[in-house]
């Protein structure tokens, strides 16, 4: 906790994500304490406990039904990305680094996974969990997390000897049977059990039962040859089947920040700085290779699945790291003698550095896309995939950017007011609903001039920005001002800080949903 408070405070002072502070403080303070107090044997257990607690809360917050929000593209994309990363790693690391094929496949499996803990916390802090790229990333991450189960069985069942193909088949069968049992239990036993507990009227019993079910399932998976942390994650997923899942989540959520601090600091505790000096060049080389390989594969798959450049770039940047399950797989590889203790420390360093870079890079995603990616590679061009022909006939209309929850409500109001409008979004799923309603729309990146021109911004009377990403709103405002100096611009801001930031660009008005809700409630109380 001392490391978390110290590192988090320094990170906030430097305007860095607190996760970076937790990780760095864990390395620095952890190294000092291990030397002074001999805590080396304690820290792996602390890390295992921390990741189990954190993933239990993540399982509660992101149940399996989240998959349906992005659907087939997110699930297939994650599966293809994992397989492609393993194959590319197999080639690169056997040819250029003299890894054995099985060791290269192990390393590829390890780096194919991204951090659910880091990414979900960043998205939650930014209020982007329900953005298009947020939903895509969460689905992608959950598929990766579930893929850990067969991966762990594969590497638990084989140390590189015998038939790898047979080990994979047995692993898939074993994981499928286990998941089937978990889902059946979740649908039948857990809801009935927790409903009976709820009738007792004791919140304390519900809290104890929640954590007991988590620990029992975690030990069940551990005895099944899988990870304790995987079981905790599945325990969270299982509890979402209960009618009381929201109540359980309310009990667990206040502890989530504490779980996160324990987890991230304990990751830093695992790194032994004294053993890394002689391998610094290899660590940097592997880190760069890992980030480049994952970025190229993930971005290519996202574009192939039809996502526009900016969305694919943002999601890829968030997924371009190595996740917490890599520590678990690395420990398994060490126990199975697939890797040496020195290489285990190299892996820890690569993973830790990727987790430090990830939140910083993701915070700058809009800048990197607009001023680096877009200008160097011109990737912002030709992003329109479909424009309704009648949109060209619109004049003195309203351009509605974003057709999510807020955008739908605005569209209904515009229909009632008999105001002509056109929707701009880069999510085909929501635009299918707009098409069913008979609305005009443009599918593309609203930060691009070509898309805004297609929406008729130059002859529109107003534009409404109903998207949650404040940096995207900044870029849109700048483009819109250049195309039409007389247009009225209405922005949505998630927080007061975002609202103050947007007002610096002189829009017609900035609307804060939470502030408007507070005013409405106050008005009702005063009536």
Largest sheet: 7 strands, mixed
Radius of gyration, in angstroms, nearest whole number:
25 Å
> What gap, in angstroms, lies between the N and C termini?
48 Å
What is the CATH topology classification name of the largest domain? Na+/H+ antiporter like fold
SSE arrangement:
Elements: H1 2-13, H2 18-37, H3 43-61, H4 67-70, H5 72-95, H6 101-111, H7 116-126, H8 132-157, H9 164-199, H10 203-223, H11 228-239, H12 245-252, H13 256-270, H14 280-304, H15 309-319, H16 325-335, H17 341-363, H18 365-377, E1 386-387, E2 398-401, H19 405-416, E3 421-425, H20 428-436, E4 440-443, H21 449-454, E5 462-465, H22 470-483, E6 488-492, H23 496-503, E7 509-511, H24 513-526
Parallel strand pairs: 2-3, 2-5, 3-4, 5-6, 6-7
Antiparallel strand pairs: 1-4
Helix pairs in contact: 1-2, 2-13, 2-17, 3-11, 3-13, 5-6, 5-8, 5-14, 7-8, 8-9, 8-15, 8-16, 9-11, 10-11, 14-15, 14-17, 15-17, 16-17
Description:
The protein folds into two domains: 376 residues, Na+/H+ antiporter like fold, CATH 1.20.1530; 141 residues, NAD(P)-binding Rossmann-like Domain (Rossmann fold). With 527 residues, the chain is mainly alpha-helical. It is globular. 69% of the residues lie in helices and 5% in strands. The protein contains 24 helices and seven strands. The two termini are 48 Å apart.
What keywords describe this structure?
single chain, 527 residues, mainly alpha, Na+/H+ antiporter like fold, Rossmann fold, 2 domains, 7-stranded mixed beta sheet, 24 helices, 69% helix
């Amino acid at each position: 906790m001392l490391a978390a408070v110290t590192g988090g405070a320094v990170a906030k002072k430097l305007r860095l994500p607190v996760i970076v502070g937790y990780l760095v403080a864990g390395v620095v303070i952890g190294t000092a304490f291990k030397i002074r107090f001999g805590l080396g044997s304690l820290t792996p257990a602390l890390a295992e406990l921390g990741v189990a607690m954190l993933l239990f809360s993540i399982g509660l917050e992101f149940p399996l039904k989240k998959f349906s929000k992005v659907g087939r593209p997110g699930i297939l994309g994650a599966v293809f990305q994992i397989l492609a990363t393993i194959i590319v790693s197999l080639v690169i690391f056997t040819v250029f680094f003299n890894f054995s094929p099985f060791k290269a496949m192990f390393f590829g499996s390890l780096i194919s996974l991204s951090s659910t803990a880091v990414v979900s916390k960043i998205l939650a802090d930014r209020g982007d969990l329900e953005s298009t790229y947020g939903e895509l990333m969460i689905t992608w991450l959950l598929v990766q997390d579930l893929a850990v189960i067969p991966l762990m069985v594969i590497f638990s069942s084989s140390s590189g000897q015998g038939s790898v193909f047979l080990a994979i088949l047995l692993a898939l069968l074993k994981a499928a049977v286990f998941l089937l049992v978990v889902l059946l239990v979740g649908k039948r036993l857990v809801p009935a059990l927790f409903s009976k507990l709820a009738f007792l009227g004791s919140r304390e019993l519900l809290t104890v039962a929640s954590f007991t079910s988590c620990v029992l399932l975690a030990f069940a998976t551990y005895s099944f040859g899988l990870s304790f942390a995987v079981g905790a994650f599945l325990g969270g997923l299982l509890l979402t089947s209960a009618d009381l899942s929201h109540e359980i989540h309310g009990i667990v959520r206040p502890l989530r920040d504490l779980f996160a601090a324990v987890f991230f600091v304990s990751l830093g505790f695992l790194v032994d700085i004294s053993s890394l000096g002689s391998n610094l060049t290899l660590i940097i080389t592997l880190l760069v290779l890992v980030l480049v390989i994952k970025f190229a594969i993930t971005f290519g798959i996202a574009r192939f699945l039809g996502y526009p450049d900016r969305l694919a770039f943002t999601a890829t940047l968030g997924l371009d790291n190595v996740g917490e399950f890599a520590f678990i797989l690395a420990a398994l590889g060490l126990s199975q003698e697939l890797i040496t203790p020195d290489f285990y420390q190299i892996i820890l360093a690569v993973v830790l550095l990727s987790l430090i870079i990830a939140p910083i890079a993701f915070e700058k995603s809009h800048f990197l896309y607009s001023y680096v990616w877009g200008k160097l590679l011109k990737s912002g061009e030709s992003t329109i995939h479909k424009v309704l022909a009648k949109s060209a006939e619109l004049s003195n209309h309203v351009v509605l950017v974003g057709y999510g929850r807020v955008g739908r409500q605005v569209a209904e109001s515009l229909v009632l007011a008999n105001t002509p409008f056109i929707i701009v979004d880069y999510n085909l799923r929501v635009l299918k609903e707009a098409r069913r309603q008979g609305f005009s729309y443009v599918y593309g990146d609203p930060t691009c001039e070509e898309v805004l021109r297609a929406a008729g911004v130059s002859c529109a009377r107003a534009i409404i920005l109903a998207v949650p990403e404040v940096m995207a709103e900044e870029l849109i405002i700048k483009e819109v001002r250049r195309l039409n100096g007389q247009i009225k611009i209405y922005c949505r801001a998630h927080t007061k800080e975002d609202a103050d930031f947007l007002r610096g660009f002189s829009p017609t008005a900035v609307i804060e949903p939470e502030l408007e809700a507070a005013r409405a409630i106050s008005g009702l109380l005063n009536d």
